[in-house]
Amino acid sequence: MRKELWELVRERAGKKGLLNSCLELYKSWTRGSLELDDPDPPSSFSEYLTRLDYSLWLWTLLFLISATIAVVVTMKAGPLVPLRYVLGTIFVIFLPGYALIEALYPREEELEPLERLALSIGLSLALVPLVGLILNYTPFGIRLYPVLISLALLTACIAFIGAYRKHQYVKLLREG
């Protein structure tokens, strides 16, 4: 029997209160005894990109890339240098692999969150040296700005491929 989420909340809120009913429904959803479906999933790729309930991961990743570039370019010295190290570490050790994992496994249920994290770090540790190897044979060499721009472009391109694959999966669910 299909019901709107708010209908379920209202039914249970009279007995247990709004907060307790929401918590109970959340627990049911995490256990798998309650399945939630979007009644109006995005129909186009542009709609997928503009709906944060579907593409928040992409916009967060692009924000982290942009923030890292901004911090690395502007913070050569000063009190915010540790921020440069933190963002740089996330940028190199996590983001390229995370983008690739999202592209390779577009369905959330294919991997557990811990598996996604471990594979993201492992694949980043494989991708970054390959970028360095390719840059070594270009006139740019392995310097800060070529590595920064190359990794940013690679990660963003892979992330958009992942977003497109996730959109295709949502589209298949909508049609099926």
Could you describe the 3D structure shown?
With 176 residues, the chain is mostly helical. It has two domains: 1-36, no CATH class; 45-175, no CATH class. The chain has helices at residues 5-16, 18-31, 45-50, 52-74, 81-93, 95-104, 113-136, 144-175. The protein is elongated and about 65 Å long. It starts with a helix and ends with a helix.
How many strands appear in the DSSP assignment? 0
How helix-rich are the residues, as a percent range? over 70%
Number of helices: 8
- How does the helix and strand content classify structurally? mainly alpha
| Amino-to-carboxy terminus distance | 18 Å
* Element pattern in H and E: HHHHHHHH
Report the radius of gyration as a whole number of Å: 21 Å
Task: Give the key terms.
176 residues, mainly alpha, 2 domains
Task: Draw up the topology in text.
Layout: H1 5-16, H2 18-31, H3 45-50, H4 52-74, H5 81-93, H6 95-104, H7 113-136, H8 144-175
Give me a quick take on this structure.
By secondary structure, the chain is mostly helical.
